[in-house]
Amino acid sequence: MAHKESPAHLKRLRQMLQQFDHHGDGKIELSQLGDCIRVLGANPSEKSIRQHVRKLRASHLERVPFDEVMSIYESIVAAAGAAAKRNGPGTVAEQLIYGLRFFDEHNTGYIPAARLARVLTNCGERLTNEEMKELLAGRVNDLGLVNYVEFIHAITTSK
Question: Which residues form the signal peptide (predicted)?
Fold first, then answer.
């Protein structure tokens, strides 16, 4: 596999992965793949990680060598770069929706209202609890979930 990174950068990446290598054999557990890819700096979706895990399991791998982790990392970074180039920076609403997808663990289009409130009152340009209650009014279903796409479109077009 031909790495595009410099030897010094590859050495740093290898050192980062060593924290996951509990056997000292230059390999990680398959169950740690997503965490390792994220430690390296990529932000893959859970779906993407599951696809890679399925392929590796089909090859009867339970421990993944460094070079294979790097190959997966590079493919995820390349795919993200191509998508960003193709899609451009996107609208503010698209960026917000993309960010909230992180909290949509089951890819349903809904996230817990409490989690949304916690994020919007504790991160970045913080909302007050009163502002949050006003924004969520009428948007929380019986299960305590919010359709975050509708929510973002409602708050970004209501001005």
Answer: none
